[in-house]
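User: Structure please.
Assistant: Input sequence and predicted structure:
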Amino acid sequence: MASPHDIVREDWLALTQEDILAPGQPVFDCHHHLWDRPEGRYRSEELMDDMGAGHDVRASVYVQCRTGYRDDGPEVLRPVGEVETVLDWTSGQERFPVGIVAMADLQLGDGVRPVLDALIEAGAGRVKGIRNTTAWHADPVVRSNPNPPPEGLLRTDTFRDGARAVAAHGLTLDVWAYQTQLDEVRALAEAVPELTVIIDHCGGPLGVGPHDRFGPDNFNAWRDALAPVAALPNTRIKIGGFGLGVFGWRYADGALPPHSETLAGDWRPWVETCLALFGPDRAMFESNFPVDKGQVGYRTLWNAFKRLAAPLGRDEQDALFWRSAARTYGIDEQIFAHDYGRISS
């Protein structure tokens, strides 16, 4: 199926340029992708150009997106090719990415263990977690993946057995699910308390199809479904993903790219709710690039997050911008304590 994401237009993004806010704030971009697809290329060169746009980005985490699977061999091991491809594309970069969230089919149940072993071996210490394609909605308008998964994966016994294997391997589990699936996410995290479950993209607040982005009932439904997830001590949340089409914002339709003041104003209710539920020590900002790049530039995105974090204390800001992600993924915090110098774009 065709990509549901907005096409990246570098010339359009260049129409809005901002000065960097809080340039001394270390940043850990804990969620981005790399790919080379018909709709566009985003490999190491493009990633480093964005990360060198002025913010003090110290490290990143790559998250699976079906890049570079093996063309042959056992089907269950083909996702190992994604780890191999990413390490090949980023050869010579130790911190971009410093961690990889890979794909292993958790519908294999306990049988996923050899796949996890192969991923860990291929990653040479960088594979930190696993993610499956799980975001599903009955309305075809609500679609964030070119190949949507079948309904109900998160609540199967085999998926939970696979999740237990992930925990046994010392890995985390990223979950991308819509607000309508958050009860399934809660049940999964509750059933596998030894597993750290990372909720991607604010828990999928929806603003398309039957979901009114500005409707208080829709907002309250998202918040009320997210609260029991946040109440579990083994859950974390990534704050970002607002450029996803399913969120309902249409910045890409504007004559000019949005300014960070606009973004901060638009996103504040969702960001403040995530922080109220999880607290800064269990929350982390993410870019979700290049998905979100169709609607907002990298410099502008992090400026918006800095505006949103401005009322917080320094320790809380550090938690959001790097510490929570580093501790969640087991990354050396010294990366953020020392001055490495800025990335050159």
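The domain at 25-336 is CATH 3.20.20.140 (TIM Barrel).
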